[in-house]
Amino acid sequence: MPRFFFHIHDWMGFTEDEEGVELADLGTAGDRAVAGARSIISDEVLEGRLDLRGRIDVADERGAVLLTVPFRETVRMIEGDIGDSGHGAAP
Amino acid sequence: MSVNPPLAAMARRLSLRSRLAEEDRLAILDLPHTVRTLEPSTYIIREGDLPRQCSLLRSGFAYRQKTTGAGARQIVAIHVPGDMLDLQNLFLEVSDHNLQILTRAEVVFIPRDALQRLARSRPAIEHAILIDALVEASIVREWTLNVGRRDSKARLAHVLCEFSLRLESVGLGEREFELPMTQEQLADALGLTPVHVNRTIKSLEGQGLIRRENRRVLIPDWMALRDAGDFNERYLHLNQLDGSGGMAVAEAAPRLSVDGSAPT
């Protein structure tokens, strides 16, 4: 199985993944990057901060970036207010 | 008999839990046993299995895990060299979790019925076994608190503090150790994702709470990491025998040498 590396770029700077992990394919690696981004975002939300500027670069063993997952693409943003009648179907 | 028979580490461990007489110690060394070298990921026992033997980790690391119906794994305990691995299965009839090898390990297996007979015939040994199992339960309670109520940084800092002290207590490094877990395994122990774990490590590093050299973790300021991890070593009961209530651990942790030789 190929080894994928998940490098994080966010307000903290650059977090290099020196370890990597063997996964079946790039699709699985993409899912893992999305889950990782959501996990980081949700942790910060608990501290009262939502910063979606970060991204995760999924790289192969030679360092080539195969996929970039921006934090903002891992969550659906729904803004505005719920009206008085407003608990209908989720958008 | 060789200088360091495989069961010497077990006698040593149990004598840290409760005072044992020389006859107790000899009875432990006399237990039937087999020694096996096991590769990472090998299952020692699976959930649902009927336990037939108890075991002692002579070298290497092991972990206990449970998995949700959807396949998400939670590592509920880590074992370091010198640990007894299956004492709760000494009297429970079915294993309620999986026990797996983390790094290449030497494991001493003891038939369950032989250890049961020994426990029943020697109250001091039974007492020591009970205390060992109670300490394990105490560690699980702390881990419940850790994953349930501490934020990601404190969770990781706490586990690193625990690792450091437990390894130190068996003479494997002081404030510096080889981390035997991958990001993925740490994530499963902390209830985080591997990507998040890597960033949390980076964050502790950025604050100067740990330093890393490949897989080695160095703790430059123990008290700072202890504060960051909300860590209090009391729950490890490292000084069960000296009546200090665990307050003097950092200065006077009893040493259990992995090969079972006398404490330093």
Please give a structural write-up.
The complex is a heterodimer of chains A (91) and B (264). Chain A has 91 residues and is of the alpha+beta class. Chain A has one helix at 26-46, and strands spanning 3-10, 13-15, 21-22, 55-59, 65-70. In chain A, strands 1, 2, 3, 4 and 5 form a 5-stranded antiparallel β-sheet that branches. The model of chain A has no long low-confidence stretch (mean pLDDT 93). Chain B is globular and about 55 Å long. Chain B starts with 7 loop residues before the first helix and ends in a 12-residue tail after the last helix. In chain B, a hairpin with a 5-residue loop joins strand 4 and strand 5 (73-79). Chain B is built from 9 helices and 10 strands. The model of chain B is unreliable at 246-255 (pLDDT under 50). Chain B has 264 residues and is an alpha+beta fold. In chain B, helix 1 (8-17) runs antiparallel to helix 2 (22-29), helix 3 (112-121) packs across helix 4 (123-149) and helix 6 (183-190) packs across helix 7 (194-206). The longest helix of chain B is centred in the middle third of the chain and has 27 residues, at 123-149. Helix content of chain B is 40%, strand content 18%. Classes of the chains: A alpha+beta (91), B alpha+beta (264). The interface between A and B is medium-sized, with 21 and 15 residues.
